[in-house]
Structures are given as C-alpha cells and as structure tokens.
Amino acid sequence: MSKQQYILPKGWKDFQHYKDRDPKWIKLHLSLLNDYKFRRMTETQQLICIKLWLLFAEQNQDLALDTRFISGRMGISSIVLGRVISVLVSNDFIELVDKPASEVLAERYQNASPKRVRDKNTPIVPSEGDSPDLQECLDTWNTMAKANGLPTASLTDKRRKALRARLKDHGLEDFAKAVQQIPADAFRLGKNDRRWKANIDYLLRPDSITKLLEEIVAEPPEPEGTRVWCLPPNRTLEQENRARAAMGKKPMRADGSIDEAAPDGWGDQMLADFRAQHLARTEQSNRTTH
Fold first, then answer.
1. What are the CA-CA distances from residue 173 to residues 60, 140, 242, 255 (Å)?
2. Residue 94 — φ and ψ, nearest 5°?
3. If we measure between CA atoms, which residue out of 43, 40, 38, 45 comes closest to residue 80?
4. Contact indicator for 200, 141 with CB cutoff of 8 Å
5. Kind and range of the H or E run holding 212
6. CA atoms of 37 and 14, how far apart (whole Å)
7. What is the arrangement of strands in the sheet containing 6-9, beginning at the earlier edge strand?
8. C-beta separation of 97 from 6 below 8 A
9. Reduced 3-state DSSP string for 220-287
10. Residues with pLDDT less than 70, the chain
11. Residue 19: which of 27, 7, 10, 29 has the closest Cα?
12. Mind listing the pLDDT tens digit for each residue in 142-183?
C-alpha cells in the first residue's frame, strides 16, 4: 500500500492565513507579479496554484494528495489536476511530503538555525558518472510520478545510455514537456484493462518523446467578446474535441462555437475508442520490437 502524501506550498510563511480566522483566508502580494516562474505558467495553472493555497488553509495545513477530493472542490478533471501539480512541483510552488504538512512546518520552524541554513546552501554534488542533466531529468520524472501515482525510478546503466540518447535528440526542455504530458492520457495512469502504468522506461523508448510532444496542444486563446474559437493549425475537429474531452472542457462545434449544453461525460466514448486504438498500436509495436 502506497504511503499517503500531503501537499505543502513552498514559502508558505509568506502566504499563510492569520490564525483563528473564520472563514480561512490567505495573503497574496505583489511579489507574484515579479516571479518569473509564476508569470510563465498558464492562467489555468496560476489559478489552480492559488486554489491549492486556499484549500491548504481551509484544511488547517493538512491537505492530502487526494485527487478525487481536490479536483471535485475545484471543478476540474483529475487528469488536469495531475498535470498542473507536476508543473507546480517542478516550478517550486508546492512540494509533496510524506506526513501532514503541519507537522513538517512545525519541525522546520523548530529546527531552523543559522548552521542549518548554511548546510542547506551547500552545493549538492552529483554522483560520479551522472551529469547534472541526467539528474535533472530523473528529478523531473520522479516529481511527476509522485504526483500521479506512477512508479518512481533510479538511474541504471541501461537508463543512462537511453537518457543520453534522448537528450541528444530532444534536449532538456522537450524532455520536461514530454514528462508533463504523461498524465494527459488516463491510459498511461493505469486506467486500462491491464492496469498498465507508464514508467520511465516507457518514456525512454526511441519514439516516446516524439509521440508525447505531438500530443501537446497549446490551449486556445481566450475569446474576446465571442464564444467562437479557432482550431489550432494542423488540428482536425475530432483531434480538438478529443483534447477538450481529456481536459474536461465542453466540445467545439464545426462552426467554431462551444457547445455549452453538452452533458457531462460527452467525450467518454471518444476517449475510450482512442485509448483502445492506442493500446492496439502499442501491442503491435511491442510485437514488432520483440
């Protein structure tokens, strides 16, 4: 049985609510506008970040990583939540801890000292043979995996070789984008007949990063005074609606308008068919490889 994890906002001392307030509330300040990592996130990611801070305050600093509860409170799909949590962890806005965050905060405040601060600032020296790039890739994978219930990994000789090859082909930035795309498909999170889950070896296959990057679609721009949206370049209506279904959004009509009256779960069958096709292609690829 996996150990329960808890969400802890980084720098909570700056955002925490004052005690004995009802309802609970948090502080926001102008430093966010000057935070490069915050500015480069999408508006959806920024909003979910702030909502997580609010939930953290509401739960008296003991917010368990319960995707069903959190996504339900926010009105978003668990798939979207998993992707955003990966982004927030990799950008140092939250961290995942193995016990209630209130206990972690109490321990940190109690144990804080000048000597401890100096020790924390000591550079971490990578193990012999592991370049900083390899370690960064491993950390990126493990952060996403912990947030989405996937297997974490360590570096083996075989993985080092494969990882160097993938970095040579794609670079660090595309590697990180591919990792963050993993939770976009529930199939990769274990929601399939075989209960198969993506692991780092799946990511390190020669064609996996390319396929993951091809899945990525930038969110459409916000409509200005109209509900008509434009399809992204090289995107069919079916592909757009499949992406919208995975993100829990309403479908797009052929004229570019959004069908706000579509019932919940409108795209479930579309996603199920796509996952079945994906599984068939994967099995065929595995048979060809072996």
1. 36, 11, 25, 35
2. -140, 160
3. 45
4. yes
5. helix 208-215
6. 17
7. 63-64, 6-9, 94-97
8. yes
9. CCCCCCCCECCCCCCCCHHHHHHHHHHCCCCCECCCCEECCCCCCCCCHHHHHHHHHHHHHHHHHHHH
10. 1-3, 11-27, 29-31, 100-131, 217-235, 255, 286, 288-290
11. 27
12. 888 888 889 999 989 999 999 999 998 888 888 988 888 888
Token pair recorded at residue 25: 């509330």
Length in residues, the chain: 290
Provide the pLDDT for residue 200.
Answer: 94
CA gap 204, 199 in Å, rounded? 9
CB burial class (10 A; 0-12, 13-18, 19+) of residue 288? Answer: exposed
> Six-digit token pair at 242?
């499949």
First to last CA, the chain: 33
Residues 47 and 222: their CA atoms lie apart, in Å, by 15
Longest alpha-carbon distance in the chain: 64
Which candidate, 237, 242, 273, places its Cα nearest to that of 257? Answer: 237
pLDDT score for 119: 40
Residues linked to residue 257 through DSSP beta bridges, in sequence order: 228
189 in Cβ contact with 148 (< 8 Å): yes
Q: What CA–CA distance (Å, rounded) separates 61 from 188?
A: 31
Whether 5 and 64 have beta carbons less than 8 Å apart is answered as yes
Q: Which residue has 């804080």 as its token pair?
A: 112
Q: Which amino acid is at 124?
A: I
